[in-house]
Amino acid sequence: MPSVSRRPARVFAMQLLYAMEITGEAPGYCLPGVLESNPISSDMQIFGMKLLDGVLERKEEFRNTFLEIIPDWSPERLSTIDKIILQIAMTEMLIADTPIKVILSEAVQIANKYSDEDSPSFVNGVLQNFAKIKKML
After folding, report:
1. How far does Cα 42 stand from its chain's mean position?
2. Could you read off the pLDDT tens digit of each residue along the chain, which spans 137 residues?
3. Which domains does the chain show, CATH number per domain?
4. Rama region for 4: left / alpha / beta (φ>0; ψ in -120 to 50; rest)
5. 95 Cβ contact list (under 8 Å, min separation 6)
């Protein structure tokens, strides 16, 4: 039986986190606009919200992780979209039963679509290091 791609949930979480970042508003305020521009199934919404909650719970932890993995960069220098893609992928690595290689591949593909040309390799490198630090690879 083929598995269902969770990419719509990941993109939904990314869009919602981005909307929150640029507006400074809570998820409930941003949610209707995100769903209007990108409607997804309720199953994908549930998984996307699980990712969003995980990111929000771990923001400080991820900030410290970025400082450890990329010491020459400050988290403020990361592009907003790259930071969000990384946070979603790291959250999924920690909370979901998705294979690590799938999470890495999805994050790289999302970065390829939504960020700049250097982002896919940057995202891959950071996530590879995160997985090694967490002894997932």
Report:
1. 19
2. 346 789 999 999 999 999 999 999 999 999 999 999 989 999 999 999 999 999 999 999 998 898 889 888 776 778 999 999 999 999 999 999 999 999 999 999 999 999 999 999 999 999 999 999 999 98
3. 7-133 (1.10.940.10)
4. beta
5. 50, 51, 54
